[in-house]
Amino acid sequence: MPSTGRLTRADAEAMDAADELALLRGEFLLPGGIVYLDGNSLGALPRRTAERVREVVEREWGRDLIRSWNANGWIDLPARVAGLVAPLIGASADEVAVADSTSVNVFKLLAGGLRLRPGRRVVLSEEANFPTDLYVAQGLSRLLGDVELRLVPRGSLRAALGNDVAVLLLTHVDFRTGEIHDLAGLTRAAHDAGALALWDLAHSAGAVPVDLGGCEADLAVGCGYKYLNGGPGAPAFAFVARRWHSALETPLSGWMGHASPFAFDTRYEPAGGVARLLCGTPPVLSLAALECGVETVARAGIEGLRRKSMALTQLFVALVEQECRAFGFALASPREAERRGSQVSLRHPKAYAIVQALIARGVVGDFRTPDILRFGFAPLYLRFTDAWDAVAALREVMENREWQRPEHQARARVT
Amino acid sequence: MPSTGRLTRADAEAMDAADELALLRGEFLLPGGIVYLDGNSLGALPRRTAERVREVVEREWGRDLIRSWNANGWIDLPARVAGLVAPLIGASADEVAVADSTSVNVFKLLAGGLRLRPGRRVVLSEEANFPTDLYVAQGLSRLLGDVELRLVPRGSLRAALGNDVAVLLLTHVDFRTGEIHDLAGLTRAAHDAGALALWDLAHSAGAVPVDLGGCEADLAVGCGYKYLNGGPGAPAFAFVARRWHSALETPLSGWMGHASPFAFDTRYEPAGGVARLLCGTPPVLSLAALECGVETVARAGIEGLRRKSMALTQLFVALVEQECRAFGFALASPREAERRGSQVSLRHPKAYAIVQALIARGVVGDFRTPDILRFGFAPLYLRFTDAWDAVAALREVMENREWQRPEHQARARVT
Description:
Two copies of one chain form a homodimer. By secondary structure, chain A is an alpha/beta fold. Chain A contains eleven helices and 15 strands. Chain A has helices spanning about 10-20, 45-60, 70, 75-85, 100-115, 130-145, 185-190, 285-300, 300-325, 350-360, 385-400, and strands spanning about 30, 35, 45, 95-100, 120-125, 150, 165-170, 195-200, 220, 235-240, 330, 345, 365, 365-370, 370-375. In chain A, the strands form four sheets. Chain A has a seven-stranded mixed beta sheet with strand order 4-10-9-8-7-5-6, with helices on both faces. A four-stranded antiparallel beta sheet of chain A has the order 11-12-15-14. Chain A has a two-stranded antiparallel ribbon with strand order 1-3. In chain A, a hairpin with a 3-residue loop joins strand 14 (about 365-370) and strand 15 (about 370-375). In chain A, helix 1 (about 10-20) runs antiparallel to helix 11, helix 2 packs antiparallel against helix 8 (about 285-300) and helix 5 packs across helix 6 (about 130-145). The two termini of chain A are about 35 Å apart. Chains A and B meet through helix 2, helix 3, helix 5, helix 6 and helix 8 of A and helix 2, helix 3, helix 5, helix 6 and helix 8 of B.
């Protein structure tokens, strides 16, 4: 990015021309006329996925039917996808399981983590954590009766790590602001206090490199349908550090996590390692789509993606400040690219209507209550000119007061 | 079926000609040269599914992206599919939720059921129940510490309904033998003992009509990928009788079961009714496939399907007895069609190798440990001549001792 002077669209075009990852956009089927800044809610469709899902449905299910579990390797799909996710989060392939939803995996690992810290009955988290993580902790707390979910402000987490804390439950990249937690430091602090750390990587995996191994992380979960491009409601993943493998118990001890599922024994015996985190029958169609999605990230390389992502968000912030200074936006994300994930969030009292007006112009971001405009920059398929065009649209929405139109006020069911 | 004399293939052909449901086979994409008697493990692919999944992937995900949650009704998919499942099991649409796997739903309802019976800490089941139900009960038991899973033989269930039993956990149609439990009588017996009944309808839904409402059933779960034709690892369903709606708590309290998921409140507040059983983000591709699968059953009508299913299994039993008397098979299923589900199971010491030899001839059934050959008769797409051809193949496998071939001995990963 030019360091001086007023930025123009030509600057963005030059950045696209110099972008070594620019060709990756061609691997996705993107609609024309849209600037898609919502890959952090739902990643775009890889071309290969459309073809692969058709193949799995028509050939593997339709023609090969039940024998596909062996002949087409369906039974190995969870482990195969896990092997692709692992390097993105600094894990070994045998430390990752792909199954169920993020929420269900939080439940498994939170329950399992509590058992690894007998005598400690507090789950520590922050109020700003993604709600489903808190809800699941509340559900486990009600079920067990003697577990407390303690919520503190972000800045008080370290101080709140008392000797009654069993598990520190945090999301690495904040879903509203994009602020990145110090995963290494907070994991160390949890360990120093005798607790385990359980990280939700929903907004990290595929966009922000994570080094779970290097940080001596204990437990983590993450989402398949955001930066991993697995499709709507894709399966999620769970990470368990190898040192906990033999001790970790999952309360969701379904047959696919059994040491010998097809022995049909009456008594549950956990499979070795993370395979015990599988529960029901693997969702093959969804896993096939997720495999293609994760491959797009794996092929691109997570380090290069992070560099491009930071450049994209940096340009967007600079452009908002250049073009939209008059309209009362506040930057909700950290100003330093290193401290935020692959998103830029702005605050504005009319956030909801402004987001709707942008969508009407083909700039798709999302609103997060109460006053956040959230713009995700999936570096696999976004261009620097997309950042320019988005800010140009934002400026026009504000200048023309398009957000005041009646059709932009009514709340949709899903926001 | 002719009541006297030796059955011939012409008799089966005549039954096909008279079959009012015969045309439904055309709604499925079935491979040529195969007699598929494994629709109880994995239902066949409906033609419509192939088209619908392509549409969801390419148009709804690829083109409409995130706005599909509202614009293409993704957010309503779980309730829409639930509305199709409900009449098949004698439930109201607002008593069924479609989410997660059968195993995960057993966990939700077992935990929820235990809370509805405070002071009682026994889950009663039978040793022959499908293992994942037992495993999940064991996982919950280990998690809670004071819950006992008590397993008794089938004939002792009523006597074992003591005043410490909170939940009677049974599978309606036995996965090995196909024997049907007296759902109404056992539910009544559970109620008389002050317990709730939780029924697993995995081998019933879509093949055997169930009247949960008429039986005053409390809780049930079921599988989407067997007779509902939802595809490999399809989402499962859960039933909660309306009278329990306000009291039932799920420990898996994820954001999609929240009263207002997009308010992003810190505190979990359950949605009204069964909607609280949703947990993570709905798996859209899998739900779209499941919707098409359930529609095939709904269009055909469950009562007519049951009549055809009974006629198919009756013919198969008669043919095995006519053609294969010399080979040492024992009928593992009840002889009376009314007392068995849509399957016929035989016992034979060489069951595994015989099943492999049949598969090599294109007759696909499955083996269930230790000595069961299991043949599922999905009435939507099977013909009476399929029953004839299957038995003819079985006879040749035995006469020619094809099962002795070395390639039929080695156990596959998934059986």
